[in-house]
Amino acid sequence: MNKDEIRSNNDALRRNAPIPANEFDIRGVRFENIHNGITMEIVSHWVGDMGVILWTSDAGDIYSTRDIKAHWVMQDIEEPEGW
After folding, report:
1. What is the dihedral of CA 52, 57, 61, 64, to 10 degrees?
2. Which pLDDT score is estimated for 16?
3. What is the rounded distance in angstroms from the CA atom of residue 55 to the CA atom of residue 71?
4. What is the 3-state secondary structure (H, E, C) of the chain?
5. 17 CB neighbour count, 10 Å cutoff
6. What pLDDT tens digit does each residue of the chain (83 aa) get?
7. How many CA atoms lie within 13 Å of 15's alpha carbon, on the beta-carbon side?
8. In whole angstroms, what is the distance from residue 56 CA to residue 42 CA?
9. CA–CA dist 3, 53 (Å, integer)
10. In whole angstroms, what is the distance from residue 54 CA to residue 51 CA?
């Protein structure tokens, strides 16, 4: 297996990895930024080697769970307990 095949395989594994049990699945949830009112919807996720989840918005921006919790508010649904 060459380097390009390894990278491609690893990317596919990260995109298809399950969300860790201690995290909420926020795909399909719309958020509003607390600083400027911008809205976004989470459309996909990527699980890093250390279990960090990176979320992709409908605009193509990437956010960590920590960033979303600190700067965004869920819209249309009540925030789950523990969020």
Report:
1. -20
2. 84
3. 14
4. CCHHHHHHHHHHHHHHCCCCCCCCCCCCCEEEECCCCCEEEEEEEEECCCCCEEEEECCCCEEEHHHHHHHEEEECCCCCCCC
5. 15
6. 899 999 988 888 888 888 888 889 999 999 999 999 999 999 999 998 888 999 999 999 999 999 999 999 999 888 888 78
7. 9
8. 6
9. 24
10. 10
